[in-house]
Fold this sequence. Notes:
Layout: H1 2-19, E1 48-49, H2 55-68, E2 72-77, E3 80-87, E4 90-98, E5 102-105, H3 112-132
Antiparallel strand pairs: 1-5, 2-3, 3-4, 4-5
Helix pairs in contact: 2-3
Amino acid sequence: MKKMVSIAAVSVATLMLMTGCSVKDGVSNEANMGAHMEEDATICKTAIYIGHRDSASVTEAIEKAGEKEGWIMTKFKSNAIIAEKMMDGVMRSTTILIAKEHIMCSKDNLPQSELDGLRSAIVKELQHDKKKH
Length: 133
């Protein structure tokens, strides 16, 4: 029951963050962060552009990257993965949403350094996956 409440809370927080995510600066165009697209005001600056890749390969790349960084990766829906990690004796989590052309990650009281590490690992894994195809 506690896990269901926790998942519901994470989902609500994610929806709230997604609603407030539109910024006029759009997506970062830094090549090393995987965002290779023109400005789009509907996507967070921290979103990762994935283009028109199939969802299965993107999900697999996210799971591999998270596990390499020490996260426990759990598929939540066909387009979401919950990443959990023990930090300072407390289990912390973030929800990674896979949209049509980008990936977004909720902050949910996580240290920015942890999110940056996870994001960088995802970008590297997606780039590695792209080279295989």
